[in-house]
Amino acid sequence: MRQTPLSTGADVVFTDHLTPEQPTIFFFYRPSSTMEQQYFEGIQAQLKGKPVGLQVIHLKTGEEPIAKKNEIVTTPTALIFDRRGRLTGKATNPDELMMLARQAGDVARIDWLTDPADPRFEALRKMGMPFKSPQQIPGIMRTMSLKPEAMAMVQQLAGMMHFADGALTRRQKELVATYVSALNRCKY
């Protein structure tokens, strides 16, 4: 199956050509090489039916602006981007390429804190959140981790509504929550 190349050497802004909500592979190769053409066809076959975008860059010499800018020193080479447009890695062999494509596909749809040096993590800690690293934030709360003030307010509300006695005792609330979670097959 022939695929129209995204570029034949001119520079391209990759983020303008990402497949929405999917990893995207930018595949550099020399179509004049029978071996590289077969390599590309093998990659196409492996990706068929998978939720991965594929963009092709045809090179003649490897001295083209797009090759130099992206440090492509050998062909075929692939650059793999995750669904958020972040470079996952560079691969020159099919196994490595497919592994990086799988990793790029495993990126969560909703972003959250992962870096302990992120100032938002320190803001959470200053608000009294007891986490020593972003990885300790429970999954159910991670979607709020990029907005520390919202996360703190939800925690405060949960404390007032769930963890304090009111119309129901805390014990009764825990029983109701456990039962509802079991009905929904939710571990929380």
Catalogue the unreliable spans.
none
Strands of the largest sheet, in order across it? Answer: 2-1-3-4
- Report, as a whole number of angstroms, the end-to-end distance: 47 Å
Largest beta-sheet details: 4 strands, mixed
What characteristic shape results from the CA principal axes? Answer: elongated
CATH topology descriptor of the largest domain = Glutaredoxin
Mean pLDDT across every amino acid position:
87
Summarize the structure.
The chain is α+β, with helices and mostly antiparallel strands. The chain has helices spanning 34-47, 65-69, 94-105, 119-126, 139-142, 148-161, 170-183, and strands spanning 24-29, 53-58, 77-81, 87-91. The longest helix is centred in the N-terminal third of the chain and has 14 residues, at 34-47.
Would you mind describing this structure in some detail?
This protein is of the alpha+beta class and about 190 residues long. Helices cover about 40% and strands about 10% of the residues. The chain has 7 helices and 4 strands, in the order E-H-E-H-E-E-H-H-H-H-H. The protein has a 4-stranded mixed beta sheet with strand order 2-1-3-4, with helices on one face. Helix 1 (about 35-45) links the parallel strand 1 and strand 2. Helix 4 runs parallel beside helix 6 (about 150-160). The radius of gyration is 24 Å and the shape is elongated.
